[in-house]
């Protein structure tokens, strides 16, 4: 269908993706000239009620949502037999592609990406929509780093009570929740589980479960615990590991109960507020009761369940033979043996057995007293935990409702609180090396200042707080001062703007693209730099932006009018448009539009010289799209 025009409006340019039920094209909206993504239902499914219904559900779900982390729906329609959805075009890669390229993603970056996915899901859940197919392939990473959740193709309204047979196996098995793997309906916590799997994959570079078949993977989601993240990627802060593993609990009630709740926990983990995070409780599986031991020899029973004793038969005149007496004696022995074994079993079951209580969350001394009252011995194992305070029971074996004999041992794992850490020495490292060193201790590095330095090379750490060797906890922040090197600002006044930019670049400086203009009627000054800040010969850090004022003669400015497509908004929209030619990018227009303004205003762009330019449109300083324009 490449180069086909749908509905006399959308010109399909190239295929950019294909899924189980649809093909996705990059297209040009001929009314606006903007790139869009068009999803077209595969022709073989046009008459399949189930796939048509799923396609319509995606349109319905998308139409109920407008969110900056969701690929927004622009149009829905039919062209002949072709059903299509028009979505915003996201120029970038899928998160799956990013993971394949990078392997493990920096833990803080992975947490930030996850927060944005959760922000999108919270919006969907509030609108009664369950995604049901969260996976890295459905997360788009824009070229500017913006995160978008896509493909609500198998989403279902949260109040829907029906599931078709094929719905139960839709989605991707590596990211299934246990309830989806067992064929049950998905809910909010099912999306939470899938987000946990995505976070696990970003942190470790691999999915938690692999298998030779989809059934093998699904069974692991149901019965197998994933390998701890810290054993695969020890550099990941334990608090972030904690969030991922809690999201992947088998039992939905032990997961986070909303996307907002999980996002809040991740924010606490990033900020080092581990003392405010929720404890993670293990699942508690009920075990079937242990059956009563059977007697050594079965007894006959009547229809009422009573034991039927052998009856004595009278013989008229004949004496009882020795053989009959022996049989009678053996029968009696068997009865007494059965009664003895049954009595022992009753004693063991009723008098000498103990049902294990729930010790999770108890203070260790209280748990020990409770175990002693039950006739059990408590064996204590202590481990560090990033979020649970010292002295609290966090695991137990055997699990609750298991049956033990009095005198048996119950093993209680008790938190020692966060591990005792000391701040590593990172002064003298590059910023990237410092981030790696801090991450290995579960710490976060923040640059608080960049200073002029003639002694230390640019991008090297000069000072750190807290200092090396000071005590810290996983999740704490190291604040660093970094060398910006040292350069002197060249004199760029009274020369053409293009020459000024070249001098700044050669001096490891940049030009602030928000040019300021000085009006003049002298045509010889047009395009010359009138003023600069900082002034010439000022010592600054490398990369400093220099603000320039440029002479302009209004009648000599090159101009062009373009139409801007504003996004839907309930508030004021700030618009900035830049002109790009070669290496330079200069602001050519700035303005604000109220919510009730036309969505397609016409604006004038001005530049110093005529020619072909690329113009970029930003909304609220976020890049939106770019097009070509000729200034005349």
Keywords:
four-stranded mixed sheet; alpha+beta; 632 residues; six-stranded antiparallel sheet; flat; 13 helices; 33 strands
3D architecture notes:
With 632 residues, the protein is an alpha+beta fold. The chain is built from 13 helices and 33 strands. Strands 1-2-3-4-6-5 form a six-stranded antiparallel sheet, with helices on one face. Strands 23, 24, 25 and 27 form a four-stranded mixed sheet that branches. Strands 30-29-32-33 form a four-stranded antiparallel sheet, with no helix packed on it.
Please outline the helices and strands.
Layout (H helix, E strand, L loop, with lengths): L4 E2 L3 E9 L3 E8 L4 E8 L7 H15 L9 E7 L2 E7 L3 E3 H8 L4 H20 L2 E2 L8 E4 L4 E3 L6 E2 L20 H4 L6 H17 L9 H10 L5 H4 L5 H10 L11 H13 L50 H30 L1 E3 L8 H10 L3 E7 L9 E5 L5 E3 L3 E7 L5 E2 L8 H9 L4 E8 L9 E5 L5 E2 L4 E7 L3 E2 L8 H10 L3 E2 L4 E4 L9 E5 L5 E2 L4 E8 L5 E6 L9 E9 L2 E10 L8 E6 L3 E9 L2 E10 L1
Parallel strand pairs: 13-16, 18-21, 23-27, 24-27
Antiparallel strand pairs: 1-2, 2-3, 3-4, 4-6, 5-6, 7-9, 8-11, 9-10, 12-15, 14-16, 17-20, 19-21, 22-26, 25-27, 28-31, 29-30, 29-32, 32-33
